[in-house]
Design goal:
Distance between the termini: 47 Å
Shape: globular
CATH superfamily: Nucleoside Triphosphate Pyrophosphohydrolase
Pfam family, one: NUDIX
Order of helices and strands: EEEHEEEEEHHH
Largest sheet: 6 strands, mixed
Number of domains: 1
InterPro entries: DDP-like_NUDIX (IPR047198), NUDIX_hydrolase-like_dom_sf (IPR015797), NUDIX_hydrolase_CS (IPR020084), NUDIX_hydrolase_dom (IPR000086)
Organism: Malus baccata
Oligomer: single chain
Mean pLDDT: 85
Structural class: alpha+beta
CATH architecture: Alpha-Beta Complex
Helix content: 25-40%
Low-confidence stretches: 157-166
GO cellular component, one term: cytoplasm
Strand content: 25-35%
Keywords: Hydrolase, Magnesium, Metal-binding
Radius of gyration: 19 Å
C-alpha cells in the first residue's frame, strides 16, 4: 500500500490552511533505497486486509484503506520456482490514509520510516513498479479525489441550492 497523510503548510491570509500530501516510505532489509509496505496475503484474509496488516508490521501505521490503484507486476528472487522460473508476481496497490503512527511495531528494529513529498518519493523509490504505482496510480487517484471533493464543496455552496430558493 501507499500510506499517506495531509500536512498543513501554514495559514493563509484568510485563515485557511494550505495542505500538502505526503507518503510514508520505509527502508528495505536488503539494500539501499526506500519502498512502500508490501507482502503476501494469508488464506483467511482479503488483499485489503493484507495491505493493512503489512502497513502495521513493516511501517507501524494504521489507517483507512482506499480504492485499489491498480495491479503492478514485478520479479521476486525469493519466489522463483519451477512453476514460475522468473518469479513474476502481481501486486495490488492501495492508498492508506494514515490515522495513527505506532510508537512500537513488529519490524521497527529492521526498518526506518520517513515522510516524503511525491516528487521526493519518486526519486527515493527503489523499485520501478512502485514508482509507477506512485506516479500513475496514486497521483491519478489523488487528483480524482481532489476534483470530487471540490465538486462536493461547490455543490454545498452553490448559489442555486434548494435552501436558497425557499
Amino acid at each position: 500500500c501507499i500510506p499517506f497523510k495531509y500536512r498543513n503548510t501554514g495559514e493563509n491570509s484568510d485563515g485557511t490552511y494550505e495542505k500538502v500530501v505526503e507518503v510514508l516510505m520505509i527502508s528495505t532489509t536488503s539494500g539501499p533505497g526506500l519502498v512502500f509496505p508490501k507482502g503476501g496475503w494469508e488464506n483467511d484474509e482479503t488483499v485489503q486486509e493484507a495491505a493493512i496488516r503489512e502497513a502495521v508490521e513493516e511501517a507501524g501505521v494504521q489507517g483507512d484503506i482506499m480504492d485499489c490503484l491498480g495491479h503492478y507486476f514485478f520479479k521476486s528472487k525469493t519466489l522463483q520456482d519451477e512453476l514460475s522460473p522468473e518469479g513474476l508476481c502481481k501486486a495490488a496497490m492501495f492508498p492508506l490514509l494514515v490515522k495513527e503512527e505506532l510508537e512500537f511495531w513488529p519490524e521497527q528494529n529492521n526498518r526506518r520510516r520517513s515522510w516524503h513529498s511525491i516528487p521526493e518519493a519518486i526519486e527515493l523509490c527503489r523499485h520501478q513498479w512502485m514508482k509507477a504505482a506512485l506516479e500513475e496510480g496514486f497521483s491519478r487517484w489523488f487528483a480524482e479525489q481532489m476534483i470530487s471533493n471540490q465538486k462536493k464543496e461547490n455543490h454545498l455552496i452553490s448559489p442555486h441550492s434548494s435552501a436558497d430558493q425557499e
